[in-house]
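Technical annex B. To support the medicinal chemistry partners, we prepared a structural model of the target in complex with inosinic acid, based solely on the information shown next.
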Amino acid sequence: MPLDIVIGAQWGDEGKGRFVDLLAANADYVARFNGGDNAGHTVTVGKQTFKLHLVPSGVVHPHAVSMIGNGVVVNPATLLSELDFLRSMGISVTPERLCISYAAHLITPGHLALDKAQEEQRGKTKLGTTLRGIGPAYTDKVTRSGLRLGQMLDQEAFADAVEEHIEVVNKQLTGIYGAEPLDSHKAAGEMAEYARKLAPYIADVSTILHHALKDGRRVLAEGAQGTLLDLDHGTYPYVTSSNPTAPGALVGLGLGVGCVERVIAVTKAFQTRVGEGSFPTEVSGKAAIRLRGTGENPWDEFGTTTGRPRRVGWLDMVLLRYSTRINDATEIALTKLDVLSGLNMIKICVGYHDQSVTSRKTGILSELPLGPGSLDTYEPVFEEMPGWDADLQSVRRWEDLPEEARNYILRIEELSETPVRMVSVGPERGQLVEIT
Ligand code: IMP
């Protein structure tokens, strides 16, 4: 039963969209399983660049059916405007081409207001969320007071439930956060209108995918965010509220464990992060601008969803090794190798020194004693590798890569104990080296 899972191996923004796009060419279904419109996937097809937040990147392939699983939290306003955008770009998005799980939870105006109020209250200890209501929506899911897509099928009862939910949120907004209350009647009316529009798309995604897999159809699960933002396995508390790791695909789509074929862990050739939280290999100043770009190009390191400049640094192999383990990755897909062209020397973090006074560990750590929760006490240990000058953007074969670039890839394979199968060398669809 062929399920392939594409996940981010870092803090999100690894460039998963382009591999989803590549693999979607041979997939019958492409399914999102976690997160919400906090994600931003950029897919470049010829001269067209699609920036998607909720709809799976596979939607640009006319033959593939897009699925949004139960693990996703859906802001109906964003979803509907994304569908309008796709239609305006000539992409068909009918209920035959897009199904949303009845068990996916909704993000409401109440969740958006709570996200903002909570971040404001955290002050200096803010998480740097995308303010898309993600945390509050998952909180309601876990406390069993959330609203699910399936409720939209009975519009009258749904409007009542939304009104009740906003009234509960208002008590929190005014009582705990000193924020303005929302108009619950207005919110209920808006959500009921969204319900009318989304009802045709609501389906039993788990059953559809189960039968598809049984019939030998290929399903591609598309992760959002990355392993280090995983609620359980990431750099807690500076994480998102879902499980972007490979096992999250099974829970978030309603599938069992036997169907997985490939787990493709996507990582940049360097490290980036948005939002708060520790980042051992972070660089600043000129080195940061060199890796980040200036923002002139859509592929420079600025958030797709929030436009925030991303923090950048050298590739951290302690964390990548951790990610390939947590996800049981069958292979690595490496992105943005071309960005490193022109550097005399490339640093790669091969271990950590533990600086904490209470540490009982000495020497260099290549595994994290307590996972990546707090990385603040670690000092990265770097290896320096010679860089290369050649522009890689037209390279398509392993043997045509400069020797230094091949050595960098081989070192990544060695340290992660995982083969690198694909390397992107430019922003466009075909700018890829496949390693067999
Ligand atoms: P939230 O998911 O909006 O609650 O944000 C929690 C943390 O995850 C923040 O540090 C965000 O910057 C980060 N985050 C959420 N989604 C993405 C993403 O798609 N790419 C990168 N970082 C993300």
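Notes passed to the chemistry partners:
The chain has a mean pLDDT of 94.
The radius of gyration is 22 Å.
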